[in-house]
């Protein structure tokens, strides 16, 4: 009896091993894993409150970007703060293509969000290739410093092209929703201050971002004339001051919760709704009072959407789709030959060169892949926010990606997912606690970042592998194997 | 042409502050071979302390001294709590840890002092001086900044060249093992390096605050400028940091004058990228200090 069991066990093990060693089958294996996870997530998304769907969308977005960080920081060993900037590249390309080319079909395919995503990805690859080419010549602190400059320089670059990129205002973008979403698109396009060039860079939606987008009733009253009148009080300050923080528009408004942009934007879902709300408001010139419940409003106000359309769910399913596709690509890269190449160069570039691996080629490829993922995440982020501007994509975003990946586990894709969950969940937890205990806003806004900073230091010192690395080393210890936490 | 001279003159005091921050980065690099990305975070924090002192006592000199002390203490604390425990092999971790410190310091400052930008009143007039019937882009305060910077730089130079402490510090930076064999307490030298770097950065922070406002994130851009200056200077050269710190200040002033101050970060980025491409060891750096 026991003998028979033993035989069947051996057979099944060899079957699994055969699956894993043959590369074609490994891809099928990975596709299966990702597919199941995707289905589960979609099920989850359809059965939770829309509020949680919006968290899900943000988690998927962060995870998409952080899969790239896993490869870049964890496997390739390059500390980059430029991924927030690369997300901005993706977001801006998405915004520009979806706004300007929405009527241009490609190969007979009508323009839709997928085309914009493709172009966002291409933009990320291009910029990532250039930066990566520079980066491959650098190591450690030099690379971190250069990419830090990139992250800080994003607002400056958007200010350089106010007509095209909307300056510090950023761009309100029209998300090409399915099911006749373009009906609202035409109306919202006329709202966009940057494209019209009417408002130049004197208005400051950075202020709207925090102040007005948060409160729904104020927003209902907003119309174009208000946009016109609202001039940025800081605009005159563009003097030869060295510290041009104020000049960077939303920089100062965002200062309190700078690391985590999720907080600043309220929940992304609100923004998404608000963006479209303005669209309809102005398009129909309704000026009707939007009541308390956002969901009801969006349903009643947005023509072209059927009543079952819940925008948070749509955003979440879109973000999940991108995250799953990226996860599939990342799984194959990380667990395949390329993953070993990256690790080899990280651990000993000279030894890697001796066995015929090009260290700089490996570094550039890691950079390009992570840029692609970052750009796709940026495009998703832009869709969730219905907005793209320098304030949301500054140094804070890059730092939060770094925090997430370090806490979750630097060298593991699962760690990226855990980090993404942490980035979204911790501020909510602090918010909840603050509400219960009645903490002042000053404490609440900064508590998540303080925790992140301290946790990052603690993790680097005590558990360099992050959550996943530590758990794995426990498991290995229990099995009697020793392994580096970063392997 | 008068514009050009005005812009150039206007850049010196900013350049001097960038030079101080770059010096702080270089001092840390020389003692522990790493870039302390939390340096401006530490400076921001001590500047807030100085602001509090100044607001309650009205005494700028006292504020400066308090910032100096707080800066050196903070430097030592960061060294002991964060830098020394990081494993030598984990260079990636060391860089990440300094960013962790930066994040924590910024959030801590936000908690204590709030996120709104605050003004720092300069001890002397910050309006352009009028000499010979024309207003120059140099104020009394600019002159004070330059004077303090000059005293500090001369003091540091004397420390490193004329004192036995400076000699020991140079020895332990140059070759820790040989220095240890010759009886230099290398560990103590590292601590001293971090303390001096912290104090230098703190003074830079207090000096630059009146030019603009201070908020938890307002020094981020200064980090980029200082890093640019330090790297172009070679990262381990004090004279390089000072030269290119002032140089960066001048370039920024010219760029801001002729185009827009918002373009300064782009120019810094381009300078940094060009330098890293063409002369990765920096202008004053020792060749061969980096490999692969």
How many domains of chain B? The number is 1
Shape of chain A: globular
Mean of the pLDDT scores of chain A?
72
- The rounded Rg of chain A comes to 23 Å
Q: Which percent range fits the helix content of chain B?
A: over 70%
Radius of gyration of chain B: 19 Å
Calculate the mean pLDDT score of chain B and round it. Answer: 87
Helical/strand content category of chain B: mainly alpha
Which segments of chain B are poorly predicted (pLDDT under 50) over 5 or more consecutive residues? 288-292
How are strands sequenced across the largest beta sheet of chain B? 1-4
Largest sheet of chain B: 2 strands, antiparallel
Number of domains of chain A: 1
Terminal CA distance of chain A: 41 Å
Can you tell me the CATH architecture of chain B?
Orthogonal Bundle
Quaternary state of the chains: heterodimer
Question: Uncertain runs of chain A with pLDDT below 50, 5 residues or more?
Answer: 1-20, 180-305
Task: Give a structural overview.
The complex is a heterodimer of chains A (487) and B (292). Residues 1-20 and 180-305 of chain A have low confidence and may be disordered. Chain A is globular. Helices cover 71% and strands 1% of the residues of chain A. By secondary structure, chain A is mainly α. Chain A has one domain. Chain B contains eleven helices and four strands; from the N terminus they run H-H-H-H-E-E-E-H-H-H-H-E-H-H-H. Chain B is globular, with a radius of gyration of 19 Å. Classes of the chains: A mainly alpha (487), B mainly alpha (292). At the A-B interface, helix 6, helix 21 and helix 23 of A face helix 1, helix 4, helix 9, helix 10 and helix 11 of B.
């Amino acid at each position: 009896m026991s003998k028979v069991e033993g035989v069947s066990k051996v057979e099944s093990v060899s079957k699994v091993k055969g699956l894993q060693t043959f590369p074609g089958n490994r891809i099928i294996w990975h596709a299966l894993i990702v597919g199941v996870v995707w289905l589960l997530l979609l099920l989850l998304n359809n059965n939770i409150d829309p509020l949680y769907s919006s968290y899900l969308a943000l988690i998927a977005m962060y995870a998409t970007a952080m899969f790239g960080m896993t490869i870049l920081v964890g496997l390739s060993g390059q500390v980059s703060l430029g991924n927030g900037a690369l997300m901005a590249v993706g977001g801006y390309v998405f915004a520009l293509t979806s706004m300007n080319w929405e009527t241009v079909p490609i190969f007979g395919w009508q323009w839709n969000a997928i085309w914009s995503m493709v172009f966002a990805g291409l933009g990320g690859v291009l910029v990532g290739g250039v930066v990566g080419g520079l980066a491959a010549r650098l190591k450690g602190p030099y690379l971190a410093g250069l990419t830090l400059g990139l992250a800080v320089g994003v607002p400056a670059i958007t200010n350089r092209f106010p007509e095209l990129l909307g300056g510090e205002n950023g761009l309100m973008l029209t998300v090409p929703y399915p099911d006749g979403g373009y009906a609202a698109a035409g109306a919202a396009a006329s709202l966009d201050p940057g494209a019209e060039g009417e408002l130049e860079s004197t208005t400051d939606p950075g202020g709207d971002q925090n102040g007005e987008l948060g409160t729904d009733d104020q927003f209902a009253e907003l119309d174009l004339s208000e946009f016109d009148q609202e001039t940025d009080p800081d605009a005159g300050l563009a003097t030869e001051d060295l510290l041009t923080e104020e000049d960077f528009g939303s920089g100062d408004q965002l200062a309190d919760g700078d690391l985590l942009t999720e907080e600043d934007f309220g929940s992304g879902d609100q923004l998404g709704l608000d963006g479209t709300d303005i669209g309809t408001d102005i398009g129909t010139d309704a000026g009707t009072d939007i009541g308390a419940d956002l969901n009801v409003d969006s349903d009643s106000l947005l023509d072209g959407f059927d009543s079952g359309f819940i925008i948070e769910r749509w955003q979440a399913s879109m973000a999940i789709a991108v995250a799953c596709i990226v996860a599939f690509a990342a799984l194959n890269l990380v667990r395949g030959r390329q993953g070993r190449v990256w690790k080899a160069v990280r651990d000993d570039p000279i030894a890697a060169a001796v066995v015929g691996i090009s260290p700089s080629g490996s570094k550039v490829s890691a950079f390009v892949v992570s840029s692609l993922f970052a750009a796709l995440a940026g495009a998703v982020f832009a869709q969730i926010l219905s907005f793209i501007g320098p304030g949301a994509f500054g140094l804070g975003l890059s730092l939060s990606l770094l925090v997430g990946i370090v806490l979750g586990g630097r060298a593991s894709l699962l760690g990226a997912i855990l980090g993404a969950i942490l980035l979204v969940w911790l501020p909510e937890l602090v918010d909840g606690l603050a509400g219960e205990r009645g903490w002042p806003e000053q404490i609440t806004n900064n508590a998540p970042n303080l925790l992140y900073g301290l946790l990052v230091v603690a993790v680097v010192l005590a558990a360099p592998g992050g959550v996943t690395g530590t758990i794995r080393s426990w498991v290995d210890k229990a099995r009697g194997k020793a392994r580096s936490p970063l392997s | 042409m008068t514009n050009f001279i005005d812009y150039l003159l206007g850049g010196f005091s900013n350049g001097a502050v960038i030079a101080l921050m770059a010096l702080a980065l270089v001092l840390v690099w020389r003692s522990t071979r790493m870039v302390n990305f939390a340096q401006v975070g530490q400076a921001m924090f001590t500047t807030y302390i100085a602001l509090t002192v100044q607001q309650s006592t009205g005494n700028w000199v006292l504020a400066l001294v308090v910032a100096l002390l707080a800066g050196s203490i903070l430097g030592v604390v960061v060294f002991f709590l964060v830098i020394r425990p990081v494993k030598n092999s984990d260079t990636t971790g060391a860089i990440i840890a300094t960013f962790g410190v930066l994040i924590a310091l910024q959030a801590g400052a936000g908690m204590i002092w709030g996120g709104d930008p605050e003004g720092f009143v300069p001890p002397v007039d910050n309006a352009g001086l009028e000499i010979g019937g024309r207003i120059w882009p140099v104020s009394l305060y600019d002159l004070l900044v330059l004077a303090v910077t000059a005293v500090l730089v001369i003091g540091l130079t004397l420390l490193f060249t004329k004192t036995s402490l400076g000699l020991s510090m140079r020895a332990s930076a140059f070759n820790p093992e040989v220095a240890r064999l010759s009886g230099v307490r290398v560990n103590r030298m590292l601590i001293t390096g971090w303390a001096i770097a912290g104090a230098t950065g703190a003074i830079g922070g207090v000096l630059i605050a009146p030019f603009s406002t201070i908020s938890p994130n307002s020094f981020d851009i200064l980090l980029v400028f200082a890093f640019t200056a330090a790297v172009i200077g070679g990262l381990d050269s004090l004279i390089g940091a000072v030269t290119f710190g002032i140089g960066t200040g001048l370039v920024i002033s010219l760029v801001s004058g002729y185009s827009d101050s918002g373009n300064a970060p782009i120019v810094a980025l381009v300078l940094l990228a060009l330098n890293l491409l063409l002369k990765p060891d920096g202008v004053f750096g020792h060749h061969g200090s980096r490999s692969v």
